[in-house]
Specification:
By secondary structure, the chain is mainly β. It contains 1 helix and 11 strands; from the N terminus they run E-E-E-E-E-H-E-E-E-E-E-E.
Length: 190
Amino acid sequence: MASSIPFEQLTGPLVVWLAPVGEAVPVVNVTPAGNWYQLGPTDGEHSIQHVGRLTYFRDNDSRGPVKAVRPDEDVIIRFNLVALTLEDYARVLDDAANIVSAGGPPATKKLPHIRGATPNEYAVLFKGDALSPYGNFPGQYVLPRAVFDDEPQPTYGRDQRAMLACEVHALVDQVVAAADKLGFLIVQTS
């Protein structure tokens, strides 16, 4: 049997899923069910940023730092959402309930651009079929509590599909295990 290690990790697009905060996280190789809503795929370009620089302390007896601490940290995921519907666009801006059927004929839907002062919180999954570094196995980034931040920016071009640039910020979830409070990455290994 040929070994698959080392190999190039090709992740491709991730699929973004939303649920109410507190929703059970699905098994890594299972399609989410229950209250999970498939927001849609990314365009294949996404970044996960672990924010939180160290602060260094010095004393009078040493020329270099004697202690380092991380006073704060964040997890930020940036991606472009494709296969965009008006309802998905509304979830990113604020809430799908903001979609208004504007009557007709013809039948229409309207999305108000106002976002409101308090963002909706979601549990968020970023699932990938080949996200595991241990082979062609699935993986998922899990944010048990998060909000859409930044300034969502839809782009339309003659040579590309409609996309919505998004940024998700993890919020501390006090209900989950201490190590998972800002989320986690879980991958299948065999």
